[in-house]
Amino acid sequence: MIQNVKRFLVVFLVFIFLTGCNSYTEVTNEKTNLEDGQAIETENNHEKDNDLKNHDKVENEQSKEQNKEKEEKDLKSTIDLSVKPNEAGKIMILMYHNIGSKESDWVRTPENFRKDLKTLYEKGYRAISLKDFVNNNIDVEAGCTPVVITFDDGNRNNFNIISKDGEKTIDPNCAVGIMEQFNKQYPDFSATATFFLNGTNPFRQSKLLEYKLNYLIDNGFHIGNHTYGHENLTKLGPTEIQEAIGKNAIYLENIVKDYKINTLALPYGSRPRKEYYKYLEKGQYKGKRYENIAILNVGSNPAYSPIDKRFNPASLPRVRASEMNVQGLGLYDWLEYFDNNPEERFISDGNANIITVPKKFEDRIDNEKVDEKELYIY
User: Where is the signal peptide (predicted)?
Assistant: First the structure.
């Protein structure tokens, strides 16, 4: 009897144990299945989130592109094509030397210089700086043509200070005085020019040199390099070329602080041997480096647009602003040429951020020079 009870208890305990194990296994399996399901659901949710993010990203990029295209279209719609803009056309860089009482090859009288400015203005030309030209930062009103004004040698008649009623004042008959007065009459014709200086006494009033140079920089004018001793570079080697240019740059930059002398007008238009050209662009003297963004010749024709494939800032031609012995290549000859060939003249679209060019001149364009500006071909 007792043995039967024992057997029963053993069987009962085994049954309970097996039942408990099965329950635990079922619970564990259910838990595992639940966790697996949650993991799959979480993974699916992540995939959905990523899909949504990617979709949103694509939509944002498409939206940005559409907005950009719309802005470009809106900008281009502001261009007045009736003025026949052509920003692949040519631009004159005018070369002056003296303003004096008697007209000669290298001298313009004050009256004739005023006549030059008035003629340019009436024919739709507007003055810009040489640096703006080279950097393709051309901002003149629609239908107008930029023109660059330069003076060589730093003669006193370029910038003369006189005493009036005991006070310093600018001579109204010097180049600076004439340009500033013209700008007062015609505010849309900027009073700007680059003065290429050489030697230790530019403008020939040594006690006023620092005042003059800083006045120019502070009032929209620019200063360039004309070598230290007005050297004929044809005869010089690398060391002498770097001294002629570098010494003058150091001298001028010591007077006008925080201003970079980085344009060069070649004395006599002379160039050294071809293998030495690189020293015109950059070099060093006494440990100080110089680098020129523009190198100007003496003559004798307009320059290409800065977006033209043929544009070369290391060899920019100039037009003689004279009416004597110009061999058909003076200022008034080129004005007549552009009157007769307006399609060759740079005509602004009025928007500095858009380059507008007729379809027939599209092949002239260097797209790298267009840079971040918008190109509009019509």
Answer: 1-23
308 three-class SS: strand
Domain end (from 28, 52, 77): 77
Question: Do 46 and 187 fall within a single domain?
Answer: no
The parent domain of residue 329 ranges over 80-377
Residue 197, class by beta-carbon neighbours within 10 Å (0-12 exposed, 13-18 middle, 19+ buried)?
A: buried
- Which pLDDT value is given to residue 47? 61
Counting other chains too, the contacts that 326-330 makes at CB distance below 8 Å and 24 or more residues apart are 327/300, 329/299, 329/300, 329/301
Q: Where would I find the H helices in the chain?
A: 2-77, 110-122, 130-134, 175-185, 209-218, 238-253, 278-281, 331-340, 367-370
For residues 101 and 109, give the distance between their C-alpha atoms in angstroms, rounded to a whole number: 5
How long is the chain?
378
Nearest to 98 by CA among 148, 171, 172, 152: 152
Looking at the fold, whether 119 and 152 belong to one and the same domain comes out as: yes
- Cβ–Cβ < 8 Å for 280, 270: no
* CB atoms near residue 342 (< 10 Å): 14
Report the candidate in 159, 258, 152, 253 with the shortest Cα–Cα distance to residue 198.
152
Q: What is the pLDDT of residues 33-43, one digit of tens each?
A: 445 555 555 55
- Please tell me the predicted confidence (pLDDT) of residue 63: 56
User: Measuring CA to CA, how many Å separate 189 from each of 48, 121, 128, 170?
Assistant: 62, 7, 9, 19
> pLDDT digit string (tens) for 43-86?
555 665 666 666 666 656 665 555 555 555 677 889 999 999 99
Q: Are 360 and 141 in contact, with CB atoms under 8 Å apart?
A: no
* pTM, full prediction: 0.82
Q: Do residue 156 and residue 233 come from a single domain?
A: yes
Number of domains in the chain: 2
Instruction: Sort 224 into a burial class: Cβ within 10 Å, 0-12 / 13-18 / 19+.
Output: buried
Q: How many Cα atoms occupy the beta-carbon half-sphere of 378 within 13 Å? A: 19
Residue 25 Cα to chain centre, angstroms? 78
Q: Give the pair of three-digit tokens for residue 183.
A: 């700008």
